[in-house]
Amino acid sequence: MAVERHVRLFRIGRNRAVRIPRKLELRGDEAIIRKKGERLIIEAPRKPLLAVLAGLPTRGRLCTRRRPFPWTGRPVTMRFLLDTGIVSDLVRHPQGRVADRIAAIGEKRVCTSVIVAAELRYGAAKRASPRLSAQLEAVLGALDVLALEQPADAVYGELRTRLGGAGSPIGGNDLLMIEELSVENWLR
Predict the structure, then answer these.
(1) Which CATH number fits domain 49-185: 3.40.50.1010, 3.40.190.10, 3.60.21.10, 3.90.1150.10?
(2) Closest Cα to residue 142, out of 100, 97, 102?
(3) Which single residue of 94, 98, 102, 107 could bond 56 by disulfide (Cβ 3.0 to 4.6 Å)?
(4) Are β-strands 9-12 and 80-82 bridged in parallel, bridged antiparallel, or unpaired?
(5) d(C-alpha 150, C-alpha 158), whole Å
(6) What pLDDT is stored for residue 61 in this prediction?
């Protein structure tokens, strides 16, 4: 559940400052602050993904964009979007083949989607395993989890209609992640 508080801004020298209420405190002594539109977002810095994986007990397919996003009008760095199977394997085998591949290409070039995070959290909750849930949260906390933003909704509607009309529908969650992606299997 989100906690929200109204706070006052004040000045310290040339900077504006805000006191963070105790219920909203972040862990540690550092924070990352960024501006998104009219929102200021303050969050705890993430631990590097490979450091998180190295600290977990050893106990998907990879998708990449083929073309830059045409609607952004700016260059886009290619990143690898890890699907449910790949992130699940990463949680179960944190020093396995997927971690080796991430180390080879660089952890800043991998991410996952909020849809994958939701599917994995559902699976962990269904299993009711505190250890699985803890490992999953450690991995997701170290990965960039991308939100679903426009125009994904328009592409989804168009693509789902086209696939359904062709007699080859696929699952709604998979469809939200498939737009113009090519698949590469990191588990082989």
Answers:
(1) 3.40.50.1010
(2) 102
(3) 94
(4) unpaired
(5) 13
(6) 35
Tell me which residue of 163, 166, 39 sits closest to 178, measured CA to CA: 163
**Residue 97: exposed, middle, or buried by beta-carbon count in 10 A (0-12, 13-18, 19+)?**
middle
Q: 0.90 cut: is pTM over it? A: no
pLDDT band at 24 (very low <50, low <70, confident <90, very high): confident
Pairing status of strand 144-146 against strand 110-113? parallel
Per-residue pLDDT tens for 149-178? 767 667 777 777 777 778 776 666 665 555
Residues whose CB falls within 8 Å of the CB of residue 110, separated by 6 or more in sequence, listed in order: 49, 79, 80, 82, 102, 143, 144
Question: Average per-residue pLDDT in the chain?
Answer: 78
Instruction: State the average pLDDT over residues 29-36.
Output: 85
Distance CA 167, CA 170 (A): 10
Residue 7's nearest CA partner among 43, 40, 45 is 40
Nearest to 149 by CA among 114, 178, 120: 114
Main-chain phi, psi angles of 86, to 5 degrees? -70, -45
What distance in Å separates the CA atoms of residue 81 and residue 68, rounded to the nearest whole number?
Answer: 14
